Amino acid sequence: MATESSESEEEGKISGGNEKLILDDDLREMGKNAAWSVSSCKPGNGVNTLRDDNLETYWQSDGLQPHLINIQFQKKVRLQLVALYVDFKLDESYTPSKISVRAGDGFHNLKEVKSVELVKPSGWVSVSLSGTDPRETFVNTFMLQIAMLSNHLNGRDTHIRQIKVYGPRPNPIPRQPFQFTSTEFLAYSTLR
Amino acid sequence: MESLLVNSVEKNLTQFMFSNAIFLCERLLADFPSEVNLQLLARCYLSNGQPYSAYYILKGSKTPQSRYLFALSCFKLDLLGEAEAALLSTVEQQVIPGGAAGHYLLGLIYRYAGRKNSSVEQFRIALSCDPLCWEAYAQLCSLGVAEEASTVFGNVAAQRLQKTHVPQRINFSEGETKDQLIDSDKASKDISVWQTEHVPGENQQDLKVKQLGAEIPPDTDNQRNASSHTNGWDLNTPSPVLPQVLDVPPPMLYKNMRRPEVEGLMSVHGEPRKKFVCEEESSEAPEESRRRRSARIAAKRKIPMFHHSPSESNGVPSLSSMIGKCRIQSSKEATTSGQSINDTGSSVDDEQNSNPRGSSLDPFSLMSGISEMLNLLKILGDGHRSLHMYNCQEALLIYQKLSEKQYNTHWVLMQVGKAYVELQDYFSADSVFTLAHQKYPYALEGMDTYSTVLYHLKEEMRLGYLAQELIAIDRLSPESCANGRCASGNYYSLRKDHEAALKMFRRAIQLNERFTYAHTLCGHELAALEDFEDAERCYRKALSIDTRHYNAWYGLGMTYIHQEKFEFAQHQFQLALQINPRSSVIMCYFGIALHESKRNDEALKMMEKAIVADARNPISKYFKANILANLGDYHKALKVLEELKDSAPQESSVHALLGKIYKQVKLYDKAVLNFGIALDLNPSTSDAVKIKACMERLIVPDELETEEDL
């Protein structure tokens, strides 16, 4: 499901990253339907840089830790994966190190869903939101918050170059319990 | 110098040396400004793809040929109102300039403006004027109002073609040319002069003139001759002698022939545009319009016609002369027409002279050629019509009747491919399209459908390759680029990159505003992105261009289902079914919409219809089982699904649904078995989660039981 980022033996540690973001076919980017906000930013490096598909621009925070990125949806959505583009080689002490992903209905009842530690990442880093239980593959929530708890080399502020949030694709056939898998069914299932 | 320049320009045009032609034409126009030369320049501009230049120079011209060219330029510039005004004369009730081509153009204008009935009328007239105007028939088919091919391309058409193409000139004097010129001269003379002419052909003119009510006492001689000639037009015409046709393009004659039929309709002031007032080929001179008018006038009186021998048709005498004479209106126009008549003479001369080149001199072989052509057109017309009525099986059978050579032409192969697509037989369609593409890699018609076929078959690589090929063919031509963009759009859509696909389709639309399918595909992509409002807009745009594009109705229905507006959805599917009553996919979704609106009986009936319509469509059975399960009729549902399972063993959703139903009827073993199989068949992640969740809950009751037992 996730990318081929190498996981070290300790749980929750991710090192390295990928040049390109490689995903499953049945994932769909959900960020367009969301309202994005950040806890603080330096002028010129605001929240837009997180969603501009440009890896040269980055968001730079400007306040106390933890730095937060808030993603709010209008209705409950199922989310599976968060992908961040960070680069230690470029950002050094601005590169986040400990990241906590929280979910909830709003700011008042966020609960941590996943916590990871990055070790000198460079490229796309995927954080899966699934639990061990198959029933916990998705996080069904109104709001997601990504908290940068600490940075590499104890830096104060953080740089994030791009963020994407993924969930499952809905069934293209409306009002059906299951999706079709075989070519034959799919060929007959729509007119084009 | 003038004729030298004219000849050079014509030669350049035939050899596609457009810039040279334009240059020479400008010189010509500078020294010899005249309407005809202006038309020539306009032709040069139009050939060179400069409709705006042609538009400006022809603005305000009144002569029919100029009006036709002007209307064409307006049409290319999308100035429909002006084009229409140019083709319809308001000053005098003249017939449409340009003949069949003019009617066809007018039909297109009406169609683009959304005036369906008028356009249908125009296309019908165009077709009756010139049965080889296939495009008019194709337009009628796509509007859904085409008549049977056998009527359209039948005997009537044969006669028309005979009249048109069989050379009918008997020269009573030395040379044809001379004749024409003589007649032209005569034509330009005053009305009174005609009395002195007694060339046999003239008698008919006299007759016409007489019929025009001109105050010219007919010669008794003439009268007699006239009547004999009139008789000659009767069905029992004796001789196959080709009567003299004095510089009259054959179409005229046929028109005259047609007149008697529509006698009632015709009048001097009658609506020139009614049927049978068709000017056939666009003739090059202003003469034509006058000829036509007087011919129309002539037809007011009974001119018996409808003889079947080809020779008779051109009994109409030199209409030009007749017209010239009968120009009761303006003798001064006659003088201006004098020069044009000369030109006409020369151009018609060319036409006539080229006739022998084009057709065999033997009228009988020409007739057999005509009947052969019409037979071919009958088959093609039938097939085309069936395809547009979505009567695809029949269309396929019809096309089989063609000779192998004709069958393997690009157009026919595209039709066959399309028929397979409409039958949802994508494999056969694929083989046909592949063959066609290999044979004719340059031909772009229908490649958008080919890309759809590859999309349905999930052939990513081939689709990508096709897209590349198409765009590489000609980056500038809208046709190729639009099709190429469509193919690339389908490619991205297959890879689920809907944004990129949307961009491609939008680009295709930019290249060709009236590319209905591109609009529909845009709508599909927007629907996939869940932007239903914009999707709706796209679909409606597609429908505004072509109301019979049932894919767009289907798309609208689907967006409404997604938005849970089931009543609306039903309406859309109904409309789609009206256009294509055999599509099982539409019936399936119609059934879903009905089911969601709680009209369950109708829903089930619709599903039955869908199953009957296409036995190979597994979706209809699946939907039916789902509906039955929702209604609680588990046993029937199970039956349907078990059958389906046998015919489609690789489909995860079938097993998943089976598992679900078995769970409902408490056959837990079977349920678990089916869920297991479903999971093995690679469902999507969310489905896998669902199935696993169902399985968990199944096992728990068992455990509880065993615990209790213990």
UniProtKB/TrEMBL annotation, chain A:
InterPro entries: APC10/Doc1, APC_su10/DOC_dom, Galactose-bd-like_sf
GO BP terms: anaphase-promoting complex-dependent catabolic process; cell division; protein K11-linked ubiquitination
Xref: CDD domains: APC10
Lineage, top ranks: Eukaryota, Viridiplantae, Streptophyta, Embryophyta, Tracheophyta
Keywords: Cell cycle, Cell division, Mitosis, Ubl conjugation pathway
Protein name: Anaphase-promoting complex subunit 10
Domain spans labelled DOC: 6-192
Homology family: Belongs to the APC10 family.
SUPFAM superfamilies according to UniProt: Galactose-binding domain-like
Described purpose of this protein according to its UniProt entry: Component of the anaphase promoting complex/cyclosome (APC/C), a cell cycle-regulated E3 ubiquitin-protein ligase complex that controls progression through mitosis and the G1 phase of the cell cycle.
Signal peptide: none
One GO CC annotation: anaphase-promoting complex
Gene (UniProt): LOC108862576
Natural source organism: Raphanus sativus (Radish)
Pfam families for the chain: ANAPC10
UniProtKB/TrEMBL annotation, chain B:
Signal peptide: none
Compositional bias annotation for Polar residues: 223-237, 330-358
Region (Disordered): 215-240, 330-362
Keyword field contains Lipoprotein: no
The keyword Metal-binding is annotated on this UniProt entry: no
Assigned keywords, A-Z: Cell cycle, Cell division, TPR repeat
Protein name: Cell division cycle protein 27 homolog A isoform X1
Biological source species: Raphanus sativus (Radish)
